[in-house]
Write a structure and sequence with these properties.
The protein has helices spanning about 20-30, 85-95, 150, 180-185, 240-250; strands spanning about 10-15, 35-40, 45, 55-60, 70-80, 100-105, 110-115, 120-125, 135, 140, 165-175, 190-195, 200-205, 210-215, 230-240, 255, 260-265, 270-275. With about 280 residues, the chain is of the alpha+beta class. About 40% of the residues are buried. Pfam families: Glyoxalase.
């Protein structure tokens, strides 16, 4: 099954502040292969399929650089359809001299890098769910080195752009308190599926390895950044139906806004709640 449509609750769009909209747009189009869906003076929506916005870039008036040691975005994660796509983008990123980190997480194979403002990006492909190892309702994940030779041995084409089937696979957030975050996201219907000691927690719906990652690597009690700083503005969670959405809104005290509901988690990370029909 896909973990990015009903009955799962999943991340669809991530909105971030950038300090130079044109520079950011060019980076995401040229380096990642997004297409522009909409554009105005202060905002660009980017898409892979020409219909669904996966990433929104915003340059607010008085924008500030990213602020260190705060809550907010650790990275957003672009999910590619296949290992061949991962091989293609590795060649492409290397040709553009993008400095990469890389890991084999057992459930997935992933690349890591930053945009020009230091916003974290993961690009990954999932292994088949039958290959994931579960024990006591937790999925085993590691940070083993990625076997680049094995990945690149897969027959693949030259990179042109993101495949239409590309999804926003997950988001990983800095928070100020893991226990508080786990309780809050439980009210949105997410369950813990992997823990890294007392430092990080991975949560999901419908048995995915994670739709959301949470960590306190910027320090327990880390403050929220300025709303004008480069970094996360909000992200969108898509619920499978109106009933589950309304339950989540009621439990968290979300406010109704145009097209859905809005809430901030205890670490002030903004979340827009909607259903797939909206």
């Amino acid at each position: 099954m896909s973990f990015h449509h009903s009955p799962a609750t999943f991340v669809e769009e991530v909105a971030i502040n950038v300090t130079n909209l044109e520079r950011a747009k060019n980076f995401y189009v040229t380096i990642l292969g997004f297409s522009v869906l909409t554009k105005d003076k202060n905002e660009v929506q980017l898409t892979a399929d020409g219909k669904t916005s996966l990433l929104k870039l915003i340059e607010p008036e008085g924008v500030q650089p990213r602020q260190p040691r705060t809550t907010g975005l650790y990275h957003f994660a672009i999910l590619l359809p296949s290992r061949a796509d991962l091989a293609s983008i590795i060649e492409h990123l290397a040709a553009h001299d993008i400095q990469l980190g890389a890991s084999d997480h057992l459930v997935s194979e992933a690349l890591y890098f930053n945009d020009p403002d230091g916003n974290g990006i993961e690009v990954y492909r999932d292994r088949a769910k039958e290959e994931w190892n579960w024990h006591n309702q937790e999925v085993k994940m590691t940070v083993d080195p990625l076997d680049f030779e094995e990945v690149m041995a897969v027959p693949h084409d030259a990179w042109i752009k993101l495949p239409e089937e590309t999804k926003m696979g997950h988001i990983h957030l800095h928070v100020s308190d893991l226990s508080e975050a786990e309780d809050f996201y439980g009210k949105l219907g997410f369950e813990a599926v992997c823990r890294y000691g007392q430092q990080a927690l991975f949560i999901s719906t419908e048995g995915y390895h994670h739709h959301i990652g949470l960590n306190i690597w910027n320090g327990a009690g880390a403050p929220a950044p300025s709303e004008k700083a480069a970094g996360l503005v909000q992200y969108t969670l898509v619920f499978p139906n109106e009933e589950t959405l309304l339950q989540a809104a009621e439990k968290t005290g979300a406010a109704q806004v145009a097209g859905g509901w809005f809430i901030k988690d205890p670490s002030q990370n903004g979340i827009f709640l909607k259903t797939a029909s909206e």
